[in-house]
């Protein structure tokens, strides 16, 4: 478990505060997990963002009338801190009985508080239900590899040695799987997700990729670190001209977390899947 997470509200009984309390936000430094992967803030081999979507965002107008909306938060992948998810939920709940002049006032407050916790500017969008409904749900790009016939016997930790490629062929492709599962490192509760690998490099053996993804099934780590580990293992194997790895996780507590990591400056799209 991440040492800082021991002091977070995750996995503990918590009082739900319904008036604005920014001190509820609990930052967790990324540095320790980067170090596990042989990285530091100065040596990150990727660019990216963590999209958080909040489906339980509500506040009061000056008249006392409540408003509901959906919040989208974009946290830079190189920010010094992640924000522990339960503390994020508790903070958002503290807005429920708090009046704001308008949505712009709320948006500015969210930007300031979340940027302070993350250690870098966090982009905030407050979206109406009608806007999100009009977008609907999307399908992931490329081929789904979940139908491949594989045998699996190991689920306890990621096994990069399973990955295989044909380095005599260079391909450009996108593949995805909905079989990503890991566990919260504090509560051991399951985290379900879908993962996309988009690359140009040595031809990746799809069955070996699926075996590797399934090997995360009982692994305990935060969403962000799972995606970073996948990115690094594929980068070492494929030596790609370009590589993007991202995961769309199923929400818990009204929040979903979607880490994106890429060798390129990509305009990442935050689109919902059927399970989200």
TrEMBL record:
Its EC number is 1.7.1.13. Catalyzes the NADPH-dependent reduction of 7-cyano-7-deazaguanine (preQ0) to 7-aminomethyl-7-deazaguanine (preQ1). Belongs to the GTP cyclohydrolase I family. QueF type 2 subfamily. Homodimer. It is an enzyme of class 1 (oxidoreductase). It is found in: Cytoplasm. Residues 16-126 form the NADPH-dependent 7-cyano-7-deazaguanine reductase N-terminal domain. The active site is at residues 184, 191. PANTHER family: NADPH-DEPENDENT 7-CYANO-7-DEAZAGUANINE REDUCTASE. The keyword Transcription regulation does not apply. This is NADPH-dependent 7-cyano-7-deazaguanine reductase. Substrate binds at residues 83-85, 223-224. It comes from Pseudomonas trivialis. GO terms for molecular function: preQ1 synthase activity. It catalyses: 7-aminomethyl-7-carbaguanine + 2 NADP(+) = 7-cyano-7-carbaguanine + 2 NADPH + 3 H(+). The keyword Transport does not apply. GO terms for cellular component: cytoplasm. Keywords: Cytoplasm, NADP, Oxidoreductase, Queuosine biosynthesis. It comes from the Bacteria. Pathway: tRNA modification; tRNA-queuosine biosynthesis.
């Amino acid at each position: 478990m991440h040492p800082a997470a021991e002091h977070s509200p995750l996995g503990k009984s918590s009082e739900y505060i319904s008036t604005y309390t920014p001190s509820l936000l609990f930052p967790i430094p990324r540095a320790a997990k980067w170090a596990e992967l042989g990285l530091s803030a100065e040596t990150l081999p990727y660019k990216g963002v963590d999209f958080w979507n909040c489906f339980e965002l509500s506040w009061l107008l000056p008249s006392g009338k409540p408003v509901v909306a959906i919040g989208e938060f974009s946290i830079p992948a190189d920010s010094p801190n992640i924000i522990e998810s339960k503390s994020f939920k508790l903070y958002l709940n503290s807005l429920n009985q708090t009046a704001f002049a308008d949505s712009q006032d709320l948006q500015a407050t969210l930007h300031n508080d979340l940027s302070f916790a993350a250690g870098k500017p966090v982009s905030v969008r407050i979206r109406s239900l009608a806007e999100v409904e009009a977008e609907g749900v999307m399908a992931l790009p490329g081929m789904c590899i979940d139908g491949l016939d594989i045998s699996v016997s190991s689920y306890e930790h990621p096994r990069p040695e399973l990955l295989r490629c044909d380095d005599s062929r260079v391909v450009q492709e996108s593949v995805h799987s909905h079989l990503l599962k890991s566990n919260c490192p504090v509560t051991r509760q399951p985290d379900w997700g879908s993962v996309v690998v988009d690359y140009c490099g040595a031809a990746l053996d799809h069955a070996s990729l699926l075996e590797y993804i399934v090997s995360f099934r009982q692994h305990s780590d935060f969403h962000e670190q799972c995606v970073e580990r996948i990115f690094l293992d594929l980068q070492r194997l494929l030596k790609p001209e370009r590589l993007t790895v991202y995961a769309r996780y199923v929400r818990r507590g009204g929040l979903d977390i979607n880490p994106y990591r890429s060798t390129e400056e990509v305009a990442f799209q935050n689109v919902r899947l059927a399970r989200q």
